[in-house]
Amino acid sequence: MHSRTVAELSAGLAAGDFSSVELTRHCLERIEANTRLNAFITVTADTALETAAHADKLLGQGKAGPLTGIPIAHKDIFCTRDVLTSCGSRILSNFVSPYNATVVQRLSDAGMVLVGKTNMDEFAMGSSNETSWYGNCHNPWDESRVPGGSSGGSASAVAARLVPVATGTDTGGSIRQPAALTGITGLKPTYGRVSRYGMVAFASSLDQGGILAVSSEDVAIVLAAMAGFDPRDSTSVDEPVPDYHAALNTELAGLRIGVPQQFFEEGLEPAVEAAVREALEVYRGMGAQLVEVELPNLALSVPTYYVVAPAEASSNLSRFDGVRFGYRSESAKDLHELYRKSRGEGFGAEVKRRIMTGTYALSAGYYDAYYLKAQKVRRLINDDFRNVFAEVDVVMGPTTPTPAFGIGDKTDDPITMYLNDIYTIAANLAGLPAISIPCGFADELPVGLQIIAGHFAEARLLAIAHSYQRETDWHRRAPAGF
Ligand code: GLN
User: Fold this and answer.
1) Read out DSSP for 439-462?
2) Is residue 415 scored above 90 in pLDDT?
3) pTM given for the model
4) What is the pLDDT of residue 381?
5) What's residue 406's pLDDT?
6) How far apart (Å, rounded) are the C-alpha atoms in residues 173 and 107?
7) How far apart are CA 179 and CA 156, in angstroms?
8) 418: CA distance to ligand 1 center in Å?
9) Which percentage of the chain shows pLDDT scores above 90?
10) CB within 6 Å of ligand 1 — which residues?
11) Is the same domain home to 172 and 240?
12) 266 within some domain
């Protein structure tokens, strides 16, 4: 059962091949049998079985939609009513949310069965899931390696076929990078496509919720239920949600693919490059045209991001003070000490590093030199993409420069860790939708092909990804033993 996609599971439920309770129980058993991956922070077994029983009723009455009764896991950054929402941090390790994030509510309304909350880098700051207060998470392809981050638990859970689909968030690559490193499909939608209401904020102008699943078809089905305007999120955009699933089989004739030279420079591992180039040839074989394009400011995206994201984080994270909710230090003698100790004990090292750099970048005297300058470079990166999209439909390249690295390999060197996101960050700075799909292996570890499209072109992006997944079966490969 667990090797089926969401689309196949949905068909199986509709045909009565199995019930949602059976499917949910199967997922829960697999989660239980694979706790060593540390993919989950919370498992909601009891409520999952209740929701599944209700879904079975709807299925029996012919009132089911395509997602009714399908299990899902949410990244622990999405607020879930009456369930721990820790954001991978000690400071929220006792926070039970009184409300649902819009994403959670919409998928619940669509009949999905929440089986648990997944592990993640603390406040989504990381590329390896090693900054989590709940410990690191393992890559099922090689358990001595990281699954990527910050949505590492969601990626690990889907790759190990513990759940058919999971949510994630992507501020600088946190859906696409772990999807690439674990051999699954991961979409970061256009900024504003999916509501951020109830999604714990890291860097508000960059954060976007999205999906990790086996296939782009599954992503299309789930995105349709998740996307759309939300009056509770002032940055959500009032654009109609197209029928992503119906658009999957649109013709690709005449597709123009931009291949930026800057995606293939120093630092890219040859075996990763080989797999990506081969994928580009598959597209050429399907009739697409490959066009060399330039993203001249791409190299500036990492430094720009590491000013903008920490600046916004330092502001967003000021709400965690030990007073209103979350962790409170036991030993504080006065109010000032309460703030200092609660934050000092509640936040981990990477989060503190971001708060400090962000506060510095925003401080009077440095604001112009750092934050304002970064915003200007951000505009240049945006303009680069605008120029490229005048010529081509999409941009393709690797998602990451290397396959999954070993646990502990980069923890002492934040700069090397940050450079893992060199190809993913630009899409966040420009607010563009981007997907990573499995396209082969390097040293027996999965490699991701990244496809970036223009604003709100998710339907086209998913159709392009789907056409590749019709021709190849990389996305159907599961790690040995799973
Ligand atoms: N790895 C990047 C960071 O550490 C991106 C994280 C993300 O997309 N949430 O900030």
Assistant:
1) EEEETTEEEEEEEEESTT-HHHHH
2) no
3) 0.98
4) 98
5) 97
6) 23
7) 9
8) 8
9) 96
10) 124-127, 150, 170-174, 202, 309, 421
11) yes
12) no
